Amino acid sequence: MKYSSLFAKTQKQAPHEAESANARFLLQAGFIDQLMAGVYSYLPLGLRALNRIQNIIREEMNAIGGQEVLLPALQPKEPWEATGRWENPGPEIMFQFKGAGDRDFGLGWTHEEIIAPLIQRFVKSYKDLPVAVYQIQDKFRNELRAKSGILRGREFNMKDLYSFHANIDDMDRYYGEVKEAYMRVFKRCGVEVIITEASGGDFSPLSHEFQMPTEAGEDDIYVNKAGDYAWNKEIAPDLQDGGDAPDGSGPVKEMKAIEVGNIFKLGTKFTEPIGFTYMDEKGKKKPVYMCSYGIGPSRLLGAIVEAHHDDRGIKWPINVAPFLVYIVDLKSKDKDLDARIKQSAVEIYDALQDEGIEVMWDDTEAGPGEKLGNADLLGMPLRIVISEKTMMENSVEWKLRWEKDIQLVGIVDVVEQIKEFVNK
Amino acid sequence: MKYSSLFAKTQKQAPHEAESANARFLLQAGFIDQLMAGVYSYLPLGLRALNRIQNIIREEMNAIGGQEVLLPALQPKEPWEATGRWENPGPEIMFQFKGAGDRDFGLGWTHEEIIAPLIQRFVKSYKDLPVAVYQIQDKFRNELRAKSGILRGREFNMKDLYSFHANIDDMDRYYGEVKEAYMRVFKRCGVEVIITEASGGDFSPLSHEFQMPTEAGEDDIYVNKAGDYAWNKEIAPDLQDGGDAPDGSGPVKEMKAIEVGNIFKLGTKFTEPIGFTYMDEKGKKKPVYMCSYGIGPSRLLGAIVEAHHDDRGIKWPINVAPFLVYIVDLKSKDKDLDARIKQSAVEIYDALQDEGIEVMWDDTEAGPGEKLGNADLLGMPLRIVISEKTMMENSVEWKLRWEKDIQLVGIVDVVEQIKEFVNK
Q1: What is the pairing mode between strands A230-232 and A219-223?
Q2: Is residue A286 domain-resident?
Q3: Does B335 lie in the same domain as B289?
Q4: A375 and A304, same domain (yes or no)
Q5: Which of B10, B28, B69 to probe the A interface (max A CBs under 10 A)?
Q6: In this predicted complex, what is the ipTM?
């Protein structure tokens, strides 16, 4: 894509409503736009990054047998009354309102109440179990104060997976599988997380969270000595930095963190109220066990920016970058040389497009300061600069966003080398 | 995909809530599930068909320079007050409610009020125009009575495109381009439409609709003699079947039709209230002209089923079918023969999977009546049957869902022939 054709350009100043690094850079770079507190539009580059995250999640969910569905955001009152969550937590979390005909509606902030009766209609026998279904969809929360950019929103994108099992053993087995799939998702997205014990909130007595340590986080966690397990402060309120871990494994370290995923063993909490049972091998009615698992792609997008930026802008990990390659051509006062620079940029851009490599070219007439500043702000992994200086050596500048080094690469070799870089 | 692993199986009976062909077949075949009137869940096969429709639309929108964004469903009151649509049509169409902090919210049923101020922030000069942006997203309408399956819902999927122009000529030019792109979308989806003049409703004095003639439609249109243009009854209330067309082209034919798309020349209706202007070449402030264009992928899915079914089930057009090939193996009482049938099914299925061809295999133990009935109900384009009879001739049955003919094709040739069929 040519930068000149993109309507959502970068802004010179960070917008004043930006209260966190993710909001500041995503807004200033033209990835997102704020409609109101906690509600954002995804502009072309932001949507590309969001889609790449969603596709990584989709691949990992499919790999563990998840079947993709799409459930409604608009929901009737009745299934929420059956589990008691229409009242509690009720409107504290859920937008609830009346529609035509005095009918009660709520907006989905999670989908246990919708998916359990749906799966119940299809599952009759032990042969129909286990089942795992997921969706990627916008959810809503009636937050009084939404903040931290896209980390906590009134409208946010969510991948929610639900699994249904014939017994506790099978539930435990699949819960473990999902835990590993989640770890693969975060790794592929360039995010390091620590599995953290937490309270299950409105869902279950206990849950596991995937916490990404960062000063920008809202959660306090205590990390064990090995650095591979933690406890959320909410379940260990008396623990202190340096205190002994709940499992006796030695001193813990207190850290701020962002919760980028969570998983819940729900047991029969949402199946029992609706009488969701199945017939076992002996024709006996048995309860169905259920889990739910969440990753918020929009929050993960924000977390990635919190983890990967410097004071000049974003440093996108390769797997989620909106474009992999960013070409900058710098003007020369020498007319001939300038034409040759432009021509090289066109040729490299066209060759990469032909190869199906995702490339953006800043083809504008802006000066070098603005162009290089934009390149850093936008943060695509590989920056290729073509200038007077590089043309003298029949080469281009090759720079990775997260490295200081600049290399010269011959113009004749650059497309081949980019292909190798991309396929690595 | 193996049918046995799909959780959302077909049902023996058409569900009683089905009041139209699209609802009856999509529900019975396990493509969708009704949560309440006008609100449906998309199950794995329904979501696949919906995604294929969305991707056809996406390709055609990208081809005319549309840039994809994703706007919020949750919206503040203020921009709707600026255009007067918070009050009129107001809650008659829009879900409106209070959230935490006594704040007013509405759910998006269209996005002119959101997109115009957003584009305004990026467009300053004639150099920034034209701009075309679109999104594919769920919208909401406060319908008193939702009916006709997924044709008219309280929550529905929408592709909405908005374009912004420096003058009326450029607006007219692009409006024509979109009209052609829309015709390509419908053609690719296997739907024949007639461009129809209509009132612009809450948008503009005049609009064009894309109407698909069918008895299941809610709209009345008068089609001209050539059959390529029509007038909606709402703008020609005195016209009768056989009466002279408004353009004097001769007698019209009255038909029922489903509106599957609409396009509006909005002019300055939504840009003027917010002072959205640009600087022209001479530094003079000029008004920005705007159009909006809609296709509902979920309604289009329903319309496709209305247009393509018989009394046994759906007949998916190739471009939108959830799977292209549907393999059925029929049990034999001869143990050896049965093993060979199963083995052939496995081999053909695996070979097609390896080729990346979208194939479903009914690998269950059901009898021939149920298996062939399911194949017709589900309606994938190409059915391959392997049975005692075909094994005797080392072949399989080849049948297209929309044809009566059954051919025998040699087992050794079938994968090659399917590859040819798919690439046609």
Answers
A1: antiparallel
A2: yes
A3: no
A4: no
A5: B69
A6: 0.97
